[in-house]
């Protein structure tokens, strides 16, 4: 069956007809569904041909084919009637309580059974009498699994046009209601990301105005840099880890649980760092000059330099 899942448009507008100002109202959701192996998808229902099951002890070389054009569910049964040159078969729709046709010589090519269904044997001889092949025609689509969804709705409760976007994924235990909210972006520019964030081997993160909060999970950088020119990195649980990258800091880092792992730190004088910092390199100021690090306790007393 050709792939018909292509939508070619420059612009797609999804209009929500709801009139409301509640937070989360006017929601328009795009869902993403799919089928696992062995489930009855649209292609299976279009052909109606299911897998072939074999009962017997002899040569197993028959398969069903064609396109089922009957009405309602029907199970096809084909069994060897006699051995000879060629062997013969018969078929039934009720497991041989009654027989639809018998003594049909095996041709070795696709042979019509009924309702558009065919049977093909790999050999014309060598079969065992009463060996049987069955196939239950597919007429019902399996309910597809909902793997994820993207939803856009109203942000806040005001009589305005503020919007937010949320991405939810199925973690494998959600049935058709994905509950793992991985990404939410609000009208004020704030974005929540659940879980771990990996920016790859060359990715970087720049915070020019605002805050970056790690509330659960880890943020990992390969060779990228983290630059904080204004704002605060707050870690409540989890770690920020950097490979060959560095941390350029004029803002602050605060942490209640977790740590920052990096090779090098660049910072301006009097930058406030209250994080648990692990480094295998040295400290440099914003001009690239090696700097001394002054460590103070909570009272402001210098405890190390």
Mean pLDDT: 81
Q: What are the low-pLDDT stretches, counting only 5+ consecutive residues below 50?
A: none
Enumerate how many helices there are, as a single number.
Answer: 1
SSE order, one letter for each helix or strand: EHEEEEEEEEEEEEEEEEEEEEEEEEEEE
Query: How much beta, percentage-wise?
Result: 35-45%
Shape: elongated
Question: How many strand elements?
Answer: 28
The percentage helix is: under 10%
Radius of gyration: 33 Å
How do the strands of the widest beta sheet line up side by side? 1-10-11-12-13
End-to-end span in angstroms? 72 Å
Largest sheet: 5 strands, antiparallel
Q: Structural class, from helix and strand content?
A: mainly beta
Q: Can you lay out the helices and strands and say which pair or pack?
A:
Elements: E1 28-34, H1 42-47, E2 53-55, E3 62-66, E4 75-82, E5 88-92, E6 101-105, E7 111-114, E8 117-121, E9 132-136, E10 145-154, E11 163-169, E12 180-185, E13 191-193, E14 197-198, E15 205-207, E16 211-214, E17 219-221, E18 226-228, E19 232-235, E20 240-242, E21 246-249, E22 252-255, E23 260-262, E24 264-267, E25 277-279, E26 283-285, E27 295-296, E28 302-304
Parallel strand pairs: 14-17, 15-18, 16-19, 17-20, 18-21, 19-22, 20-23, 21-24, 23-25, 24-26
Antiparallel strand pairs: 1-10, 2-9, 3-8, 4-5, 4-9, 5-6, 7-8, 10-11, 11-12, 12-13, 27-28
């Amino acid at each position: 069956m050709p792939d018909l899942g292509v939508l070619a448009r420059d612009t797609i507008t999804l209009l929500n007809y709801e009139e409301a100002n509640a937070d989360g109202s006017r929601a328009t959701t795009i869902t993403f569904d799919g089928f696992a192996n062995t489930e009855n998808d649209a292609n299976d229902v279009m052909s109606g041909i299911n897998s072939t099951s074999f009962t017997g002890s002899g040569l197993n070389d028959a398969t069903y084919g064609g396109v089922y054009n009957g009405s309602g569910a029907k199970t096809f049964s084909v069994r060897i009637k006699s051995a000879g040159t060629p062997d013969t078969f018969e078929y039934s729709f009720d497991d041989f309580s009654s027989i639809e046709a018998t003594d049909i010589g095996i041709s070795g090519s696709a042979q019509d059974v009924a309702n558009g269904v065919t049977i093909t044997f790999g050999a014309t001889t060598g079969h065992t009498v009463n060996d049987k092949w069955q196939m239950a025609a597919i007429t019902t689509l399996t309910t597809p699994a909902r793997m994820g969804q993207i939803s856009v709705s109203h942000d806040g409760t005001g009589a305005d046009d503020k919007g937010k976007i949320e991405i939810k994924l199925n973690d494998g235990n959600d049935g058709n209601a994905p509950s793992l909210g991985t990404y939410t972006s609000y009208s004020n520019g704030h974005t929540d990301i659940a879980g771990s964030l990996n920016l790859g081997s060359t990715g970087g993160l720049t915070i020019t105005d605002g805050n970056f909060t790690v509330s659960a999970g880890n943020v990992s950088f390969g060779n990228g840099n983290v630059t904080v020119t204004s704002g605060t990195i707050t870690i409540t649980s989890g770690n920020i880890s950097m490979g060959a990258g560095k941390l350029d800091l004029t803002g602050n880092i605060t942490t209640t649980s977790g740590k920052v792992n990096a090779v090098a730190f660049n910072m301006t004088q009097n930058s406030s760092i209250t994080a648990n910092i692990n480094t295998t390199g040295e400290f440099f100021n914003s001009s690239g000059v090696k700097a001394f690090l002054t460590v103070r306790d909570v009272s402001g007393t210098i405890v190390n330099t």
